[in-house]
Amino acid sequence: MQLLNNRTAVPSARPSNASSRRSAVTRPIVKVQAIDEAANAIINNAEGIVTRIASAAPAAASCVGNCLVISGMKIDTTIALGGAVAAAALVAGLAWAAENNKPQAAAEDAPRPARAGTPKPAPLKRENAVLVLGASGRVGRRVVERLIKMGRTVVAATRSTDTAKAALGEAGLVEGAQPGGKGILFYEAADVTSVDSLKRAGLWKGVTQVVLCVGGKAGPLPGGGFGYIDGLTPEVVEAGGIANLVSVLPEVLPKQASLQYTTLVPMGTTDEVAVWERMDDVIMGGNSSSVIELAPELGAGITRWRGELIVEGGGFCGARTKAMADGADLSGYDGVALRVKGDGQIFKINIKTTDQLDSPESVYQATFDTVPGQWTDVTIPWHNFVPVKRAQSDPAGAPLDPSKKAKFGLVLSRFEFNKMPNPAYKPGPFELLIDGGIRAYKAPRAQLVQVSSAGVERNAIIGDDVERRKADIPIVQLNPGATLNHKYAAELAVRASGYPYTVVRSTGMIDSNEGGPFLLEADQGDIISGSISRDEAADVLVAALTSPEAVGKTFEVRRGEALDARGKSMNPAAYTRMFLRLALDRNRWRVGLPPFPKYAPPPAPVTEERTQEILNEVTRVREVQKAAMDAKAGPADVKKEVAAAGKA
């Protein structure tokens, strides 16, 4: 029974003034403080009072929606609560009257309770939410914290909402809107091992993205020993659970896998073309010239920019729009898009922000290629735009702020940046056709972001080859509970789901951030090892949620092992560069990586004796690594020490 939204605060009794206390009038001694406390107790326990009404006659009382039903008579809980509030108000008024020797005025002057029909606060919006499965785990709770700090709406889902509330409560998170107004947190019960649980409509309300932090649940067993609790093995939770999730997604999660566009600078009418101004090199004594005009003979909405580039005296042609009235806030988009047909030359697109309107020498520039005689769809993300000042790149310039667009421009120049030659320009006549003007685009984000483990791919390749397994890294040798096999099965399900995804394979997870911060490194093909903290892993998962550059990629990530990686923090630009260096999974074999191996069944479990040998070796290697790093040895020295310790 939800009554919190119906509570009405009642002021405590008014204190008597100083002159009254000094009055010689004799009056009864009243324990005002005790009465005031009683009034507050009634307010604070109003919900309990209503509950006890029902418990007093359990056979005849029940709760239906916001109504209390007693012996067939339905009482709205707001009315019941209003009665409790009224009682508190009466007690408070009596206290004030007794203190002021005005017993007849007590009820008249007591604060009045709110009417039972007071509107409830509007329910919190649940939209564009991130569903975090496994939210009470050590990585999951960190993901929730970071998303809330960003202002996102989060649905924290676990088998037990009490467990999630306890774990996230320790981090200072509360259900609903957070103090300060940033982020909204909802709790939902969800069990990935149950398809029916995953199909529950309420779970998916407002959800657009999912973070998969589920894993087997290991710990002390009731009968002694250590193992998987309640049968929640990696096979059941990860391989089976994520397969269950993927099977229900088409019913519960709308797919967002295509670019979204909005027109910024239409160029389909005479008036729309008229906003463009010539900016050829004649402004600085050159002889080049150009014009933007409609090309109705080629189709509706097609514009032609044509001219003649003359190198002597300048060497560029340009056109620029007039300033937009209030600028253009494009922070909800990822870049600009053009559909063009050119002659094989490299062109530039310029953006001038509202901050640069009084600085004619400052602009942001990006380049785009054309294919001779072919229509090409060009997308240019914001991070491709270079700050330029006086025709030179400006290393101190701030990144382009998408919320402050004021003017757009087109340029064909014999120079690229910093007087470096444009590798694809031709003096003389040129023509660039533009279909649909200049548009802004929003790229799909990953709707499924999964935390997996380094070692899953090489484990699948090794299969049942015992000797190769002995020579590999410790996690592959141990493979507790065949977890690498089951994590890989979960990966395969995610990649085959048809939804935009990112799979993050963490290297060895630790809780310590000692010595940090660290730059992170990512690679593909399961060829690196190392360590990463759970805080860092959570940061990567959140960055993958927000970065279109991470979509469709599977990669391993670790702390940078170079000495100069210490003391440096990752930032949005660093994450963008890290993701851009990675190949799309569908293009792996085009960049020298093998295709993903097929699933391999679990190998035979490792004996206890062999397990201890492996763990002893791990301890020795870590000690050598720490000693080498503490001594600030160079990377080559570290590798020698590690090799001497027997690490593969």
UniProtKB/TrEMBL annotation:
NADH:ubiquinone oxidoreductase intermediate-associated protein domain span: 270-434
Biased composition (Low complexity): 9-24, 105-116
Domain called NAD-dependent epimerase/dehydratase: residue spans: 130-215
Gene3D superfamilies: Galactose-binding lectin, NAD(P)-binding Rossmann-like Domain
Superkingdom field: Eukaryota
Pfam families: CIA30, Epimerase, NAD_binding_10
Domain NAD(P)-binding: from-to ranges: 447-548
Start and end residues of each stretch annotated as Disordered: 1-24, 103-122
Cross-referenced InterPro entries: Epimerase_deHydtase, Galactose-bd-like_sf, NAD(P)-bd_dom, NAD(P)-bd_dom_sf, NADH-UbQ_OxRdtase-assoc_prot30
PANTHER family: FLAVIN REDUCTASE-RELATED (PTHR15020), OS06G0360300 PROTEIN (PTHR15020:SF11)
Protein name: NAD(P)-binding domain-containing protein
